[in-house]
From TrEMBL:
Domain Allantoicase: 23-182, 202-339
UniProt family annotation: Belongs to the allantoicase family.
Source organism (scientific name): Kitasatospora camelliae
Keyword Protease: no
GO MF, one example: allantoicase activity
GO BP terms in the entry: allantoin catabolic process; purine nucleobase metabolic process
This enzyme's EC code(s): 3.5.3.4
Lineage: Bacteria, Bacillati, Actinomycetota, Actinomycetes, Kitasatosporales
Protein name according to UniProt: Probable allantoicase
Biological or metabolic pathway of the protein: Nitrogen metabolism; (S)-allantoin degradation; (S)-ureidoglycolate from allantoate (aminidohydrolase route): step 1/1
Length: 421
């Protein structure tokens, strides 16, 4: 029996960048006569209902192309390179750490092999522009089995916006999952308040006391939960402790308001909750440092099936927030509205800058005010692991002409506008 998430693949704990909840979609496909390529991105595991036939045959919950044929009676078989493909626009751009190619319920009609490629095409490109992009192999052509969730780890630190699934020579794939780390363009967030915990900006539920009934990753998922199962729910406690979820924010910031949502949790909502914060910008580890946590929201009574909107006093910056629920129960969502600090914005920007393709990094620097030569030199100095490394790299740039002081000032202004250093 196919299982969509493979326990031996730790990358499945990361966000699915190809989730339609985040805005992913099919840009194009060369062939989906039997079953639409859009099915690849359906959030639920694939289903199979035997003997349900439509005008094109058995209805399959996945992407299925027609059977390929050769060019003539003398060559009736497809060539070794003949294949079908589907291109996915990721819901959010990010660094891909692993891919799931799931052939659930495809037993006599699965592809012989498949490959996965990726490209970075910023902005809002047309399908033709995406197809013409420079594609990089993430998963080389690999044999597939029927009714199996194939897990492929990816070792590539580049930020991508699109992936392409190639199947050889034809056949059906039920689901495609693309797990990774969100890399938000910092320019999109400048001057804004937003949900610092949200998956779409890079927030991650990185630890939880309990995930018996449902995942803590649901807490910071996009949109509102439509049923109880789309939230986070713990088992019933039989001791005097409490349950909690720890979230790494998209970047260090000030949390201005919280929404603690118990929608759909009627008889199993927590009685109370509080929020505590941690600032790891100085190098501490929130997973082991029990003394560095400080209160953000005092223990507050919760009501069942209710969106609790709670305004907070802006205080110390935080990089991590932990919600404690007393004694147990379930939450639909947690929203933490706030704004990035200068250090938080710089850290986010450096992670983005280090991961975008070189051509994009250079174009961004030129757009911020550097010369083409300066942009190329600073891009070549990557990775800029922290603000100190970035400052050193900027100082090492040689002026193209004119007084050194003038060029130094211009460089610093340009890099500050982009990277915040």
């Amino acid at each position: 029996m196919s299982t969509e998430e493979t326990p031996s693949a730790p990358f499945t704990e990361l966000v699915d960048l190809a989730s339609r909840l985040l805005g992913a979609g099919i840009v194009g496909t060369n062939e989906d006569t039997f079953a639409d390529a859009e099915n690849l991105l359906v959030a639920k595991p694939a289903e199979f209902r035997p003997h349900t036939f439509g005008h094109k045959g058995q209805i399959m919950d996945g992407w299925e192309s027609r059977r390929r044929r050769g060019t003539s009676a003398e060559t009736p078989h497809p060539t070794d390179e003949d294949h079908d493909w589907a291109i996915v626009r990721l819901g959010v751009a990010g660094v891909i750490r692993g891919v799931i190619v799931d052939t659930a319920h495809f037993t006599g009609n699965y592809p012989e092999s498949a490959s996965v490629q990726a490209a970075s095409v910023p902005g809002h490109p047309s399908p033709a522009e995406v197809e013409a992009a420079e594609w990089v192999d993430l998963v080389p052509r690999t044999p597939l089995r029927g009714d199996t969730a194939h897990a492929f780890e990816v070792a590539d630190g580049t930020r991508y916006t699109h992936v392409r699934l190639n199947i050889f020579p034809d056949g059906g794939v039920a689901r495609l999952r693309v797990h990774g780390e969100v890399r938000t363009d910092p320019r999109e967030l400048d001057g804004l308040t937003f949900d610092l915990a949200a998956q779409e900006y890079g927030g991650v539920a990185e630890a939880a006391s309990d995930r018996y009934f449902s995942s803590p990753h649901n807490l910071n998922a996009p949109g509102r939960a439509s049923v109880m199962g789309e939230g986070w729910e713990t088992r019933r406690r039989r001791d005097k402790a409490n349950d909690w979820v720890q979230i790494a924010l998209a970047g260090g910031g000030e949390v201005l308001a919280a929404e603690v949502d118990t929608t759909h949790f009627v008889a199993n909502a927590p009685g109370w909750a509080d929020l505590v914060g941690y600032d790891a910008s100085a190098g501490g580890d929130p997973s082991t440092d029990t003394e560095g946590w400080f209160p953000i929201l005092p223990r507050t009574r919760l009501q069942p099936d209710t969106r609790h909107r709670l305004r907070l006093d802006a205080g110390r910056p935080v990089t991590h927030v932990r919600i404690n629920v007393y004694p147990d129960g379930g939450l639909a969502r947690l929203r933490l509205t706030g704004r990035l600090t200068e250090d938080g914005r710089a850290s986010l920007a450096l992670r983005w800058f280090d991961s975008v393709p070189a051509a994009e990094a250079e174009a961004a620097l030129v757009g911020a005010g550097l010369s083409a030569a300066e942009a190329a030199a600073l891009t070549a100095a990557r990775p800029l692991a922290d603000a100190a490394a970035a400052t050193t790299a900027v100082a090492a740039l040689q002026p193209a002409d004119g007084p050194d002081g003038e060029h130094t000032s211009r460089r610093r202004s340009a890099v500050w506008r982009l990277l915040g250093i």
